[in-house]
Each structure stands twice: as structure tokens, then as C-alpha cells.
Amino acid sequence: MSDRVKKIVFDPEERKVLDMTFGPGVAAELVGRTPEALAKAEKEGRLAAPKQLANGRRFYTLEDLTQIRESLGIHPGKADHEDAVVIAVQNFKGGVGKSTITKHFADYLALHGYKVLVIDCDPQASTTTMFDIKPEMLLDEEKTLGNFLSPRSNFDDFPASIHDTAWPTIKVIPSSLGLQDAEWDLTATLREGGQAVREGLQRLRIGIENVIKDFDVILLDPPPAMGFLGLNVMAAATGLLVPVPARQLDYLSTIHFMNTIAENIEVLEANDTPVDYGFIRVVCSAFSPNKPGENDMWKMMQATYGMYLLSQPILASEEIKNATQAFRSVYESKPSASHATYNRCRENLDAVFNEVVQQMRQQWPSTSIAGPSSDALASAAA
Ligand SMILES: Nc1ncnc2c1ncn2[C@@H]1O[C@H](COP(=O)(O)OP(=O)(O)O)[C@@H](O)[C@H]1O
Ligand SMILES: [Mg+2]
Q1: Nearest CA to ligand 1 atom 9
Q2: Domain spans, the chain
Q3: I need a surface site. Which of 148, 226, 227, 228 has the fewest CB within 10 A?
Q4: Can you give the residue ranges of the AAA domain (predicted)?
Q5: CA torsion 354→360→364→366, rounded to 10°?
Q6: Top-level CATH class of 12-72?
Q7: What's residue 141's pLDDT?
Q8: 319 CA distance to ligand 1 middle (Å)
Q9: How far is CA 276 from the centre of its chain?
């Protein structure tokens, strides 16, 4: 029966195909060189000649960017012996932008040459869907995160649950409804206590250790409620990015959330699972400066969180709304209205994510001495 369902649901023709090309200016920016430097390397034969449209315009694909980085020895990520930074986009509330940020940040990182693993820990699986994996297609329950996390499971092959995506350098561990069972099984370890609880809290962390050298960044999209799954995410993370919309109610619930985080860190510590976050940053998500009250809220957030708040909020944008409704990111989409609106949205996201990248790079001794990248300096100067 499951084979029949698979045949009906799984249509290989339906897979997302990335239709992305970059002009010389953008391509140069993404690999961190000037267009002149690229043109020179092409002329000298250190790089292959770029593809051309019929009208003579030169363009590059994602694969071309990878090729350019390899040929010119540009290595934006960590050194081989270093560990991936594991970032949880954490907030126990639904609808605050967790999945939207996870998807957009993953795409941003891939565009800039980082190797990314996205782990969808939310049984609702919206991030999984945005990476073009239909949760109902994953009938092979054995190779899912849920099965790995369940203490009942004897499936220890964490890397086997890693799936390819349309992006060559983004992999995803999809979520499935089985995650809810895992939550239940994990909670049941409380009855056994001691060692069983500790192992239950560390399942995700232990799984990630298998692949920690293979990626630059591992992004965790946590479940919206606190429980054993949420504790697994907190135990596995080495950095937290907390999205908070500039709405009164979300703000209050975030204060509650901060207290919950503190309590949960104590629970983890009491069970031999201490955490040590390299950074914690709050990001104001879906900010509408023209909505009554939101500007005041933004000021209040600045006063409350100080240096822990990213200096730029993520603006509410129809581009983001339209893209995510089509299960895509803005980076994968064409402008839905004017080019100006689209570009403004992308520039805003780029500025926000660049700030997180600076935090991330400080976690790797091999990149932290290099100092902030040129675009960070540019935005600081602006
Ligand atoms: N910056 C934004 N601008 C416009 N819409 C947004 C923005 N961020 C998120 N949204 C929308 O808000 C809704 C909830 O976002 P989502 O990322 O699914 O939240 P969560 O994962 O925290 O539950 C989605 O419909 C998404 O399209
Ligand atoms: Mg979500």
C-alpha cells in the first residue's frame, strides 16, 4: 500500500528546479571579489569564460559560483578540523517567523558559499516543505529525525536521514509526524530517570556530532512548544537566534520565553547536559514601521535587549509573504511587484543575515581573526 501511495504522491517532474542566474556584478559580490578581478582571472584563463545570453550579456549559475570559489581558492567557511556552528532559530511561539527565517538564512548562506544542513524539528514541517520535500512522501519512517530521536528506536544512522535539496550546498533532515511520537517516547524516559533522561536530552546533539565537521552551519527550526524535543534543540545548539515581532503580545511572551530558556538551561545542567552558547541574538521579525505602536515597540526592544538585538529589523514584506506562500524564499523568486520593492526586501534580509554571519564566524578561530567582512564595514559606515 505504501508503495502505491508513493507512486501517486511522488512525481519527480514536480521537484523544484532553481532558476537562478547572476550578472557579473552580483556574482563578484557573492564570491567576495570585484567584477574587474573576475574579468581579469577569466582573461588570464584562471577561470572559465562565463556563459552568455544571445544578447551578449554574461551570466553565472550557482554551480559557476562554486567553481569560481574553488579555482580562486576562496573559502568562506570554517577550516576542515573546526565544528559547524549550530544555530537554533528559537522561540516557543508559532507564527513569529522561525521557518521563514530558517529558510531565507539557509539560502543566503548557500549563496555566499557556506555548506548548510537544515534540521526541521517542527512536526508541522513547513521548513521541510519549503525545501521541496513533501512530508507525506516520507513513508520510509525509518530514515527520519523522529525515528532517530526516539529512545525506542534502534536506528543509529543519523546521516541516513539527510536529504538533498534543489540547492547543491543545502541538505535537509525533514520533519515528519513521527516527531510527535518521539516527543512522547522521550518524555517517557522521565520515569526511568538518571542516565535515560540524560541520553534522551542529548539524542539530537549526539546525532549532530556525526556530521559536525561536514557542514559550516547547521540550522535548527524548533517545535513551537517546550518539551523534550525543544530541550534537545537547546542542548544541540551552539548559538541562538530569537525572532520577536514588534507586537505587544509577542513581546510579552518573549519575556516569558527568556525566563523559560533560563529554566530549561537549569534543567539541562541538572541532567549533566550543560550548554554554552557562543552567541544569543534577538531579531525583530516582520517589522512594519508604519503600523501604530510598532515603532514604540522597536524602541522598547532596543532598550531591553541592548547589544543582544540585531541592529536591523527584518521588515514585513509582501515579497516574503508571496514567496513563502509558494514555498520559496525571496532568493529563489522573481520580483512579485516592482524591482525596487524586491531589491529593498533582499537588501534588508542581506543586512540582517550579515550580522548573524559575523557572530557565526567568530566561533571559528580560523575566521574570527580575519575581522568583519567588507560588507559589514560598509553597512557599519552607512
Ligand atoms: N518579514 C515578513 N514579511 C511578511 N510576512 C512574513 C514575514 N515573516 C514571516 N511572514 C509570514 O508569517 C507567517 C508565519 O511565519 P512562519 O515563518 O511560518 O512562523 P513560525 O515558523 O514561527 O511559525 C507566514 O505566513 C509567513 O509568510
Ligand atoms: Mg514554523
Answers
A1: 97
A2: 12-72, 77-381
A3: 227
A4: 86-263
A5: 0
A6: mainly alpha
A7: 62
A8: 11
A9: 20
Regions of the chain with pLDDT less than 70 = 1-3, 5-14, 135-142, 369-382
Residue with cell 529512545: 151
Contact between 151 and 189 under an 8 Å Cβ cutoff? The reply is: yes
In this structure, the number of other CB atoms found within 10 A of the CB of residue 18 comes to 16
Q: Cα-Cα-Cα-Cα dihedral of 181, 186, 192, 198, to 10°?
A: 170
193 alpha carbon, distance to own chain's centre: 33
Residue given cell 512579485 in the structure block: 336
Report the pLDDT value the prediction gives residue 99, as an integer from 0 to 100.
96
Nearest Cα residue to atom 6 of ligand 1: 321
| Main-chain dihedrals φ then ψ at residue 283, nearest 5 degrees | -125, 130
The DSSP secondary-structure symbol of 297 reads: H
In whole angstroms, give the CA distance from residue 189 to residue 335.
49
Residue with CA nearest ligand 1 atom 14: 95
* Amino acid, res. 309: L
Tens digit of each residue's pLDDT (9 = 90 or more) over 65-92: 999 999 999 999 999 999 999 999 998 8
- Residues 355, 362 contacting (CB under 8 angstroms): no
So what's the pLDDT on residue 378? Answer: 47
Grid cell of 358 as nine digits: 559575523
C-alpha cell at 35: 567584477
Ligand nearest to the CA of 124: 2
Fold of the domain built from segment(s) 77-381? Rossmann fold (3.40.50)
Q: Contact, 74 vs 66, CB < 8 A?
A: no
| Rounded (10°) CA dihedral 221, 227, 231, 232 | -70
156/218 Cα distance (integer angstroms)? 19
Q: What is the DSSP letter of 308?
A: G
Give the residue ranges of DSSP H helices in 218-293: 228-236, 248-270
Ligand nearest 247 Cα, by number?
A: 1
- Which letter does DSSP use for residue 158 in this model? G
Residue ranges near ligand 2 (ion) with Cβ within 5 Å: 98-99, 126
Other CB atoms within a 10 A radius of the CB of residue 123 amount to 22
Given this model, what pLDDT does residue 374 score?
Answer: 47
